[in-house]
Amino acid sequence: MIWIVFAYHIASRLAYVLGVGFTLRRQDRTGFVTERHGVEGGFQRFRRTAALLMGNDAVSFVVLCIVSANTLRIGLPRVLVPGVGVVFVVVGILTKLWAAATLGDGYYWRNFFAPADPVPSSGGPYRWLKNPMYTVGYLPTYGLALVTGSVLGLVAALFDQTAILLFYRLVEKPHFEVLTSEPGSAHPPSRGTAPGRRL
């Protein structure tokens, strides 16, 4: 049962990262979504699908941590590990909320559909971190794994973060490099990009 849930979560993460990544790369190259549905219609259709994939991914991670609870054995005081997990969850969620508030609609990769939209601000947590959503914003996954004492949760958290960082490197970063380097672009280069959300 645990291994089925683990496999389902890995499949969910791959569906999210590959599905969103493929769609955004294709949109970037050909504009196929906006051609068929217009900028706003195309973005809203994409956003609904991306939210569904993200939600499924998040739920599968929580279920994995629950079904594989109490499998982590570390020679530390029993209260310490969940306590560190709670701190991770709180810091990660607060960072994600701050980053999401800074990004606005960029949270769901809107400028892949409307490149004329401003590149997201380099304010908020982007002032200090290049990519707070995919770095510090992933602390809640590790935190939940620690709170539940799930070894497979920790493995899945590491896999999830690695997958989203590859997504950033292969899909988002090239897109924003083009947006910020085009001659006559009104978009000044910024440290921050518009990473999508992930719990």
What report would you give on this structure?
This protein has 199 residues and is an all-alpha fold. The chain is built from six helices and no strands. It has one domain. Helix 5 runs antiparallel to helix 6.
Strand content: under 5%
Helix-strand pattern, N to C?
Answer: HHHHHH
Identify the overall geometry: globular
Instruction: Round the Cα radius of gyration to an integer and report it.
Output: 18 Å
Count every beta strand, where a strand is a DSSP E run of 2 or more residues: 0
Number of continuous helical runs: 6
* Largest sheet properties: none
> Average pLDDT value?
85
Count structural domains: 1
Distance N terminus to C terminus? 24 Å
Helix content estimate: 55-70%
Return residue spans where pLDDT drops below 50 for at least 5 consecutive residues: 184-199
Structural class: mainly alpha
